[in-house]
Amino acid sequence: LTLAIHIMFIVKFKYYIADLEVKTPEDLLKFVIIVDTGFLCSMCGKHFRTKRETRCHVESIHFPHSFTYSCDFCGKEFNTLNTRNIHITRHHKKQQKTWSC
Questions:
Q1: Does pLDDT of 8 surpass 70?
Q2: Is the pLDDT reported for residue 38 higher than 60?
Q3: DSSP structure string for 8-44
Q4: Which of 2, 53, 76, 81 could tie 48 with a disulfide, CB 3.0–4.6 Å?
Q5: What CA–CA distance (Å, rounded) separates 1 from 99?
């Protein structure tokens, strides 16, 4: 489908989409639409190159402060997964290298 069709879909079902519940961070992916040129936010139609960028946008712009994420190294809490990941990269680089999933 073309970008124009996806945007028409978004506008037509905007109120339905807005009523979707977000109970877990994974639910944020309900608002990510795959298009030929990348990904769209179904809430506002903004285009992104990656799924991760779109998910970060949905969380920080449309559902701010819905979840908290704790740093596994120091326990500091963050309002978005992205800010937590940036914190770990900047402040726990040495620990991160020895940490495994």
A1: no
A2: yes
A3: HHHHHTHHHHHT----SGGGGGGGEEEETTEEEETTT
A4: 53
A5: 42
Per-residue pLDDT tens over the stretch 50-85: 999 999 999 999 999 999 999 999 999 999 999 999
Q: How many other C-beta atoms can be found within 10 angstroms of the C-beta atom of residue 11? A: 9
C-alpha dihedral (29, 34, 37, 40), degrees to nearest 10: -50
Beta 47-48 vs 69-70: how paired, if at all? unpaired
Would the pTM count as exceeding 0.90?
Answer: no
Strands lying side by side in the sheet with 47-48: 32-35, 38-41, 47-48
CA distance 58 to 50: 13
Task: Give the C-alpha separation, 58 to 28, whole Å.
Answer: 7
Question: What is the spatial distance between Cα 54 and Cα 29, in angstroms, rounded to a whole number?
Answer: 9
